[in-house]
Amino acid sequence: MSDNIQQRKTNAGDIVQEEVNIARSINNDYEEKYGFKDDVKNHIDIGKGISEEIVRQISALKNEDEWMLNKRLEGYKIFQEKHLPEWGGNLKDIDFNDIHYFVRATDKQGRSWDEVPQEIKDTFDKLGIPQAERKFLAGVATQYESEVIYQNIHKKWNELGVVFLDTDSAYKQFPDIFHEHFGKVIPSSDNKFAALNTAVWSGGTFIYVPKGVKVEIPLQAYFRINAQNMGQFERTLIIADEGSEVHYIEGCTAPTYTTDSLHSAVVEIVCKKNSRVRYTTIQNWSSNVYNLVTKRAFAYKDAVMEWIDCNLGSKLTMKYPSVYLLEPGAHGEVLSIALAGKGQHQDAGAKMIHRAPNTSSVINSKSICKDGGRTSYRGLLHMVKGAKQSKSTVICDALILDNQSQTDTYPYNVINEKQVTLGHEASVSKVNEEQLFYLMSRGLSEEEAAGLIVSGFIEPIVKELPMEYAVEMNALIQMSMAGSVG
Amino acid sequence: MLKVENLHCEIDGQPILMGLNIELIPGKIHVLMGPNGSGKSTLAKTLMGHPSYEVTQGSVELDGEDMIDAEVDEKSQKGLFMAFQYPVEVPGVHFTNFLRMAYNSRQPEGKKIPIFKFNKLVREKAELLGIEQELLDRNLNEGLSGGEKKKAEILQLAVLNPKYVILDETDSGLDLDALKIIFSGLTKLQEVNPEMSFLIITHYQRIFDYIKPDHVHIMYKGKVVQEGGMELVDQISKEGYSNFKK
Question: How many residue pairs from chains A and B have C-beta atoms closer than 8 A?
Answer without folding.
Answer: 78
